[in-house]
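FAQ

Q: What does a record look like?
A: Structure on top, sequence underneath. For example:
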């Protein structure tokens, strides 16, 4: 048994000290981390269903992409939902945060429906399989490694800002070389972020489990699932651009 400071992982407030065995703490943390990935997987299923619905119902796809104010409204709604869930999680109940997260996943599916029109279906599944394997491998590494990945996370975050700027500039120049470089570098960045985010979420869950803060565990699980979901989606899009053959 060992002593652990009872500090709320979300608010930073301290409470009475708790005693918990390392084995029990590890089991509790792994159980919570498993639920994070389950929530992320459900969000991916919702996104896939929404994207396919827009593909199977041409009128829905045309509504999103042929009516400018609808497309802009969808994009703005996505940004607002991500910001609200990530930045205001402490003010939201877990139920509301879950609803917002899954709503974001459904809306994101509408904007991602273009992949079914742009790429052959076989290529889409090929890219998805590669993404799933890479994501699973790096998530497992992030969950079991004892090496701190904080430095890798910092480098990847800086690289992320770099490719965002490069993509924005290339929007006007349309350079295929720049697009290819951004795609390959993006794969490296989101692979690194997957491992880093997994480790970061595990540490936060471990602290919350040791402090026995159920509310904090639920909120960390939602924000963590959102982070990993975004890592997966962005990794998928980068890989799809590399292996894809445009129709």
């Amino acid at each position: 048994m060992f002593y652990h400071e009872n500090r709320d992982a979300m608010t930073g407030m301290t409470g009475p000290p708790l005693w918990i065995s390392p084995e029990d703490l590890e089991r509790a943390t792994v159980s919570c981390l498993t639920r994070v990935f389950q929530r992320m997987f459900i969000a991916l299923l919702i996104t896939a269903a929404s994207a396919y619905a827009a593909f199977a119902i041409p009128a829905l796809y045309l509504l999103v992409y042929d009516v400018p104010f609808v497309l802009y409204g969808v994009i703005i709604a996505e940004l607002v939902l991500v910001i609200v869930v990530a930045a205001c999680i402490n003010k939201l109940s877990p139920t509301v945060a879950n609803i917002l997260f899954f709503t974001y996943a459904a809306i994101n599916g509408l904007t991602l429906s273009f992949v079914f029109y742009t790429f052959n279906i076989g290529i889409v599944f090929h890219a998805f399989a590669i993404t799933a394997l890479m994501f699973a491998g790096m998530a497992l590494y992030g969950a079991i490694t004892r090496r701190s990945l904080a430095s890798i996370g910092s480098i990847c975050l800086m690289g992320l800002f770099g490719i965002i700027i490069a993509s924005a500039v290339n929007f006007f120049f349309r350079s295929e070389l720049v697009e290819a470089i951004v795609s390959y570098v993006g794969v490296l960045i989101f692979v690194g972020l997957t491992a880093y985010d997994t480790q970061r979420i595990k540490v936060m869950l471990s602290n919350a489990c040791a402090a026995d803060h159920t509310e904090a565990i639920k909120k960390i699980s939602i924000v963590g699932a959102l982070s990993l979901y975004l890592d997966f989606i962005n990794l998928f899009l980068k890989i799809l651009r590399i292996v894809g053959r445009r129709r």
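Q: Is there anything notable about this one?
A: The two ends are 61 Å apart (CA to CA).
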